[in-house]
Specification:
two-stranded antiparallel ribbon, 5 helices, about 5% strand
């Protein structure tokens, strides 16, 4: 139960960065999109899912469905193009959008490469799915 709370809180705090910008000195971890964004709506849905997880017996299934949907959306926004390739337009748009973010792997002109923030975010979503299934 403690692990669930820690990983759920970690994902909530980490994803809050999509609403408010997180910076590490001169480096941008993630550029926040504000409260009038799809990211904020997703944060609200995740928050509701967490509340239901702890308040209702069926809350686990509601949160699990929300996490799986979120993971699928993230897969098709990032990893699909990493694995199967991206059009020149998609690659340019992605690289322009995330050009100032912290990276583990360098940006590529031929392949979409997720930045550090998104690698951690997607890992946290997957860990939360596993934890939800294990409960």
């Amino acid at each position: 139960m403690v692990a669930a709370i820690l990983f759920q809180a970690a994902l909530w705090i980490w994803f809050l960065g999509c609403t408010t910008t997180y910076r590490l000195g001169k480096y941008t971890l993630v550029e926040g999109m504000g409260i009038k964004s799809a990211e904020f709506a997703t944060l609200c849905l995740y928050s509701i899912g967490l509340l239901l997880y702890y308040l209702l017996p069926v809350g686990k299934w509601i949160l699990l469905a929300m996490l799986i949907l979120w993971f699928v959306v993230e897969f098709f926004c990032h990893w699909y193009f990493t694995i199967f390739g991206a059009t020149e337009r998609k690659l340019k748009g992605y690289n322009d959008c995330f050009r100032n973010t912290v990276r583990i792997f360098p940006m590529s002109d031929t392949r979409l490469v997720p930045d550090f923030y998104h690698i951690v975010q997607h890992t946290l979503i997957l860990l939360n799915i596993i934890i939800c299934l294990a409960r």
